[in-house]
């Protein structure tokens, strides 16, 4: 026990929001210290992370390479739909982030709390824990993303009240009703920001015979995307490759047509919210009439998405302040209050 105390003194316990699009790291007592895209550049046919002038091609450096690499280099997003799609690359990415944040890796390894989608399987949970342990964690805890988000935005998750969280990330949308420190009813669908980007790519192919990349589609979504009509509609020049001529070409698209392209993924997200409400116990449902829904995650930044959720449910809806960091902030709070909040965790590994 004395050794554990010594190790704890020198170790930086950290919470990780291991997302499909971005990874955020929160240090106990310090807040968010790292926010990077979940992208790694490797040499083709290997798991060797590419070396660049500033170190390794992980995070924002690797994201800049998406769609631009020569044949011997591949920029990979190792997380897909909120779970690990490439174990070796995810491990390399986690190791890079842990070492970047945990300056004392030569002495002790940190305890790590990782937020995971509520709908993943036991096998997938084991994979996340194993990857983190091999990447340098001495002990690993897991927490459902909606629970972490609820804690991060200050909801009274331990009270006998309904707290409804909608977390639209890059790979998954998590919908949960939380009460008394647990998830009472939830839905997890693998439809989120990535599917919105794909819908925009598909629209550009069909309407303009123009092929655009993931990064361009994401920029279109951010700059002129919306879920409901805007007070002032917008336009944007989009550049890509002509599918017929094979040459570079640009065209101008409107926010109206982007909104139309997003209807399918948005419809599936609304269905998940509706199903969760239908499965909610009457006493908890009555709480939501006043308490409403809080939205977090990058997808909740889509213009007017709160309006369509409110229209669909008839409940008050608000987007959290700084919704991108809600889950990571929640992991930091749990680490600060681990004794009192330990029952909100999915479980912990044995000490490595």
Explain how this protein is built.
It is a single chain. This protein has 352 residues and is of the alpha+beta class. It has helices spanning 2-10, 60-63, 87-101, 122-134, 145-152, 193-208, 214-224, 255-261, 263-278, 282-291, 305-313, 326-336, 338-341, and strands spanning 14-18, 22-27, 31-37, 40-43, 51-52, 55-56, 73-76, 79-80, 83-84, 111-116, 139-144, 163-168, 173-179, 182-189, 210-211, 235-242, 248-254, 293-296, 317-319, 347-348. It folds into three domains: 2-38 and 77-148 and 326-348, ATPase, nucleotide binding domain (Nucleotidyltransferase, domain 5, 2-Layer Sandwich), CATH 3.30.420.40; 156-191 and 264-320, ATPase, nucleotide binding domain (Nucleotidyltransferase, domain 5), CATH 3.30.420; 201-257, ATPase, substrate binding domain, subdomain 4 (Actin, Chain A, domain 4), CATH 3.90.640.10. The protein has 13 helices and 20 strands. Helix 3 (87-101) packs across helix 4 and helix 6 packs across helix 7. Mean pLDDT is 89; it is low at 1-10 and 347-352.
Task: Kindly summarize this structure in a few lines.
The protein is an alpha+beta fold. It has helices spanning 2-10, 60-63, 87-101, 122-134, 145-152, 193-208, 214-224, 255-261, 263-278, 282-291, 305-313, 326-336, 338-341; strands at 14-18, 22-27, 31-37, 40-43, 51-52, 55-56, 73-76, 79-80, 83-84, 111-116, 139-144, 163-168, 173-179, 182-189, 210-211, 235-242, 248-254, 293-296, 317-319, 347-348. It has 13 helices and 20 strands.
